[in-house]
Amino acid sequence: MTEQRFGASSTTRVGFLLRMVGVGRTGAAGATPARAPAATKGRTWTRNAPPAGRPSTARAASGRRADGVAWLTRIVAGAAVALTVSGTVTGLATVPAAAEVKSLAGVSNLAGATSQAKQSYIVRAVPGSLNAVADQVLAHGGTITTRLPALDSVTGRLSASAVAALRRNPRVAKVTADSSVAPMGLLDGLLTPVVDTLVTVVNSLLAPITGGWGSAPADYSPTSDANSLYSLETLTGVRGLWKSGYTGAGIDIALLDSGVAPVSGLSDAGKVVNGPDLTPESQSSATRYLDTYGHGTHMAGIIAGRDTGVNPVASFGSSAPFLGVAPGARIISVKVADAHGSTDVSQVIAGIDWVVQHAHDPGMNIRVLNLSYGTDSAQSFRYDPLAYAAEVAWRNGIVVVNAAGNSGLTNGRLADPAMNPNLLAVGADDLKGTSATSDDVVPTWSSRGDGVRNPDLVSPGLSLQSLRVPGSYIDATYGSTGQVSDRFFRGSGTSQAAAFTTGEVALLLQMRPSSTPEQLKYMLAAMSIKLLGGDATAQGRGLLKLGSVTSILGLIGAVPLPTTAATGTGTLEGSRGSNHLVLDGVTLTGEIDIFGKAFNAGPMATAEASRTSWTGGTWNGSVWAGGSWTASGWAADSWTGRTWAGGAWTGRTWATGTWNGRTWASTNWVGSDWHGFGWSGRTWAGANWGTASEK
What we know:
7-stranded parallel sheet; about 30% helix
């Protein structure tokens, strides 16, 4: 995050304000380490409710919030006094001295009203839209006097017509008169960004108490959020297909992720089916299948979220209900990551293999696999075991949608398994809130290809709104930056882009259920529109838009399977790249899985090709799960084997060890510039939670 620096005198006052709430300079700098969510230990979930341990009643929750609000009110009052007395804060508008205020009534311009045509305003942008909003200020004849990137704001002089136009712009959050113009609007104008900064500080202080619920705007509106699913679904033609009756109905989507929590929008009976939980959290009924991390639920919401009782066909034009891209589709959740987003490549391969073998169990129709996972493997896709497992799924009729990765130009190639050209690799696009593609850009963090294997296409991936999991790791740690309402959280990354594309694929499969993965890939390429702001290594064929789908469907004939097939005979350690789990001081490396069992790539590849790598609940010689379906999902079983470190699995989660790789391509979840890769060990492809830096 770009730091907003205050003048020396105001810095002293800010320090005083922080001391009012018992925080010294060290505390204000965020020295308190991030906590693992208490939800990982012995918590019980009920439908549509946060885990036990969160405020158990509305009274308890509101009481804490009220305490925080009262606390914040005292801080804001102190800030108002401090700012008014000083009359100056570097980088913000100047508060006039009392002698300059002749009369509060009828004074419309304390700066002297030298121009009735233009007055001073503060224009606040929707997170991630500051550059676009600044351009609009200038386009409407305004002038910019100060840019405040940390606050998503600019100050400048605008005419009344420009103000009216900006207030209609969906990328503009608010336009308020500068305090030097309207002293009665002091708190609403000058102090608003200061209050927002203080809210962020207070949220960080309250996080250990409240679990990071943050300060959510009560008036959140999808129509005014350029990155809401409503806005993005409208811009990309998704809702036009709903109007024609295509919602993804009848299509099952396998989601290999951190599980799914039964929050509103994903809680209806039959919306989510629990496949196996392949994490140590499967050993506790309090965490089994559930999303203690917060990533999988966010993806599931984008893909197929649907509010109770809503008919997407009838509601195609309404922003009121929450509806994912394919609201008629069903999610088959395969949990492979725990409360810290941690996993080993052996768990992911096992999950892919399970999907292939059970795609068409009675009542199942898995046609799409969403994989927001990627490593920095340097192996060729022809030999890499992870890339091979994903290709086996593709050759068995499952469209495998992969996040391209969030390494930008760093690795010089796509993540594994997106690097396999026989799959579908998706990069991220920033649509800038407009229907035209002329202003779209590919964010700098979206992984670039090497010129031979590039992303196949791009989809919306910046600051997407989706479902929040109260009490999850991401919520507890980043709620102050990512939360946009009590229900919703905002995240950026190629995982969000892949999830959006996954929903679009489900819509097309409902339209043309006989399509093969190769045919779908050709259709998607034909419907994509080249962006001016990015070359082929960044965008592939461009932004996927479904507006031309009806004319293209009839043009796609038979498409052969890829001729350059992978073999899977490389090394498991090569698939890991730099991503490794450490438990009891022992790093998981070499040709062994999490149970310490030898992984023999050749025989495993043969078993995968014949769809026999799983026998009941056993994979690679160890019992990972039960062997059949139950009323609550795929059965669980006790892990009686040993960890790779030699200890028992009882009571284990990855939180008891460490994670020194980057496996879920989400390297850093803070609401700011994540290029420092501050989280060692997150390769879930969700680059950023909350407000995204301008690129």
